[in-house]
Amino acid sequence: MPTAIAVTSADLVLPAPDRHTPGAAVLRPPGEADLEGALAETTALLERHGHLVALVPPWLPPATVRRLHTVRAILETDRIALLDIDLPPLGTAVLARQLRQLTVSDFSPGVLASAARLLSHYIYAGAVLGSVAKLDRIPVGLKAHARSWSPSAQFAVLAHPQPHLARIGAAAAPAHGGVLPPGPAFATHLTFARGQLASDWVTAELAPAWKVQGVMENPLPADSARWWATPKLVEFAAAIPDVSVLYQLVASVRREQCRWCGFELIGDRCGFCAAPIAAPPPEDGAAPRPRAATGS
C-alpha cells in the first residue's frame, strides 16, 4: 500500500481528482478520541501503509499538536513524519491532495515527505474578505482597517506565496495591476470555498485573470474563519493539478540521504526527523556519526 497522507480534520480531505488518487487518513483530535484510540488508529495505519506523512499547520490547537507528537513518541517509530506547513486551511487541503496524488508514484516515503515543502511554494492561497480589521496573518495598512467598517467593503487577500491586499468591488479604484493579486506563471486549477460572503469575484474576476484551467468549489474548512479572522469570506487556492507535472517537479530535485535517520530526501531538511542536510561542525573536531533508522 502507498504511504498514508494524513490531515487533522475531515474537511481538509478534498475529493480525489481521479480514480487512482487514494484518500487521506484523518487523525482525530483529543476531543474526538482518547490517547489509547489515537495509538490504535496510528498503529493500524502504519501496519497497512508502512509510513505516515501528516500535515501539521501552525494554526492547529496546541492540544492537537501535542497529541500528534505524543503518539509518535510513545510508538518510538521513525516511520511518522509530522510536517510543519504554513498554509491557510484550504491551501493545506490542496497540498494534501497533491501528496495523495504522488503516493501512487515510485517516490520513497522520505522523498514524498520532503516534497511537501517544495510543492507548497507553488500554491497560491488567498481569500476574498468582508473585513480585514482583525486580520493579522499579513500586513494590513490603516486605510484598509478603516475601510473594513464599510458594510459593502470587500478585499482580495493573497497570503501565500507573497502577501498582497487590495480593495475590490464597485467602491474600489479601477483595475490597474495592483487590485488583482499576482497570479502563478504556470498552469493551475482553482479550488474555492464560500463562507458568509456573497461574492462571485473569485470565479468572475480572479479565475479568468489567472487563466486557470479549471475551477472547483468545495465546502469551507471549519478553521478558515478563524485563520482569516472573519466568517465573511470566500477562500481560494490555485495549484498544479497534473500529477505528471508534480512528478517531474519533484523528480528534478537532487536526492540526498538523511545523515540522521537514513531516509532519502530532497531539499535541505528531512521530513521524518527534521535533521538538516548539512551537519553542523562538531565541537571537538570529530566527524558526526549517523544513526541508523530503526524501521520500527
Structural class: alpha/beta
Question: How much helix, percentage-wise, in residues?
Answer: 25-40%
Major sheet strand order: 7-6-5-10-8-9
Radius of gyration: 21 Å
The outline comes out as globular
Low-confidence parts lasting 5 or more residues at pLDDT below 50?
A: 173-178, 285-296
Q: Report the sheet-strand fraction.
A: 15-25%
What's the main sheet like? 6 strands, mixed
What is the overall number of helices?
A: 8
State the end-to-end CA separation: 17 Å
> How many beta-strand segments?
12
Mean pLDDT: 88
Describe this structure in words.
- It is built from eight helices and twelve strands.
- Helix 6 links the parallel strand 8 and strand 9 (215-217).
- The relative contact order is 0.16.
- The chain is globular.
- It has 296 residues and is an alpha/beta fold.
- The protein has helices at 35-49, 62-75, 89-102, 109-120, 142-147, 201-210, 224-228, 243-251, and strands spanning 4-7, 25-26, 52-55, 80-83, 124-129, 154-160, 164-168, 189-194, 215-217, 233-239, 255-257, 264-266.
Task: Give me a quick take on this structure.
With 296 residues, this protein is an alpha/beta fold. The chain has helices at 35-49, 62-75, 89-102, 109-120, 142-147, 201-210, 224-228, 243-251, and strands at residues 4-7, 25-26, 52-55, 80-83, 124-129, 154-160, 164-168, 189-194, 215-217, 233-239, 255-257, 264-266. It contains eight helices and twelve strands.
Present the secondary structure layout.
Blueprint: E1 4-7, E2 25-26, H1 35-49, E3 52-55, H2 62-75, E4 80-83, H3 89-102, H4 109-120, E5 124-129, H5 142-147, E6 154-160, E7 164-168, E8 189-194, H6 201-210, E9 215-217, H7 224-228, E10 233-239, H8 243-251, E11 255-257, E12 264-266
Helix pairs in contact: 1-2, 3-4
